[in-house]
Amino acid sequence: MNMFRLFNRPKSAPAARERLQVLLAHERMVVGTDLVAVLREEILAVIAKHVQLDADRVTVKMDRDEHCTILEIDVEIPLNASAQAAA
Amino acid sequence: MGKVIVVTSGKGGVGKTTSTAALGAALASRGEKVVVVDFDVGLRNLDLVMGAERRVVYDLVNVIQGDAKLPQALIRDKRLDNLFLLPASQTRDKDALTSEGVERVMADLKRYFDWIICDSPAGIERGATLAMRHADMAVVVTNPEVSSVRDSDRIIGLLDSKTLKAENGERMEKYLLLTRYDVNRAERGDMLKVDDVLEILSIPLIGIIPESMDVLRASNIGAPVTLADAKSAPAQAYFDAARRLAGEVLPMTIPGEKRGLFGKIFGRKAA
């Protein structure tokens, strides 16, 4: 019975890895909260001057790799946005 | 001018003091002048691990407050005469360390030593931030375990924002020292692997120290593991890490990896 359990026990390391990846992606964002929030507001303001957009469709993220911190900006612009701005 | 290294981790009990002592002795055995500095005011232990607990007269706080001169507080190692210890105070608390005082002591040490290795207290409070403040490079000690990896991530963030280097817009060199690694458990899928931790923390690896009886044995007798048994697996791993810190390029070996069926049956010695 015990032997059976030993061989069938699921591996735990992949769970550790996944939990950490999710948690740290979140925590890195929260720790840099001020900067990310400020950047988001200002980027939004600049783009809104030229195209009409939905504030909820803008995401600003900070991530890190070996050499640098990466600022990721994702802006969704509606198809007819420029026309609206021009009008 | 000497190089300042901070040995830090966020989480307690992962091997900062053990690693400070082992790396300090390894660098000193290369002939360089080394001082290991205990920043854990109130809970000092580097003196004990180095086997110098009965020789402490003055400490870091005494020097900072002007009650003693730096040479009076430095303790020369009995085994290596170019290895020194600057102990922390046991009776004070971390507020006894002032930012200016630490700066002055670090500047003095840099003139006399090739390497100044600062053993950081656990946590992210004042003691830890003062220990990392003047560092040129950081050794982040991490166990392959979720809470240690999370805390290391936090410390890496502090190293990139709260140090003089970071404030001056320079890049802080940060290296991962993975300790208490058990290659068999990792292979079985029950411990984070080296690559998992590297991928999550994204800083270069300086060494992998195997989980080993030799580490406890060394601290029992009051000797850095690199001096207690230089041929043991953890000592070898620390010697390699010290060479990498000094700029040598060596292939990374995972300690205890080559253990065939014979080894599995006849002894759980490997690491």
TrEMBL record, chain A:
The protein's job, in short, is:
Prevents the cell division inhibition by proteins MinC and MinD at internal division sites while permitting inhibition at polar sites. This ensures cell division at the proper site by restricting the formation of a division septum at the midpoint of the long axis of the cell.
Write the protein's name. Cell division topological specificity factor
Asked if the record carries the keyword Cell division, the reply is yes
Species in which this protein is naturally found: Rhizobium soli
User: Which gene underlies this protein?
Assistant: minE
Q: Name one GO biological process term.
A: regulation of division septum assembly
Into which family does the record put it?
Belongs to the MinE family.
Q: Which UniProt keywords apply?
A: Cell cycle, Cell division
Cite the HAMAP family for this sequence. Answer: MinE
UniProtKB/TrEMBL annotation, chain B:
Does the keyword field hold Cell cycle?
yes
Q: Does the keyword ATP-binding apply?
A: yes
Indicate the segments forming the CobQ/CobB/MinD/ParA nucleotide binding domain, all copies. 5-224
What GO CC terms are in its UniProt record? cytoplasmic side of plasma membrane; cytosol
What keywords are assigned to this protein? ATP-binding, Cell cycle, Cell division, Nucleotide-binding, Septation
Specify the domain of life of the species encoding this protein: Bacteria
One MF annotation (Gene Ontology) recorded for this entry: ATP hydrolysis activity
Q: Which GO terms describe its biological process?
A: division septum assembly; negative regulation of cell division
Write down a Pfam family by its short name: CbiA
| Chain sites annotated for binding ATP | 11-18
Q: What does this protein do?
A: ATPase required for the correct placement of the division site. Cell division inhibitors MinC and MinD act in concert to form an inhibitor capable of blocking formation of the polar Z ring septums. Rapidly oscillates between the poles of the cell to destabilize FtsZ filaments that have formed before they mature into polar Z rings.
Q: Which NCBIfam families match?
A: minD_bact (TIGR01968)
What family classification does the UniProt entry report for this protein? Belongs to the ParA family. MinD subfamily.
**Subunit record text:** Interacts with MinC and FtsZ.
Task: Write down what this protein is called.
Answer: Septum site-determining protein MinD
* Species the sequence originates in: Rhizobium soli
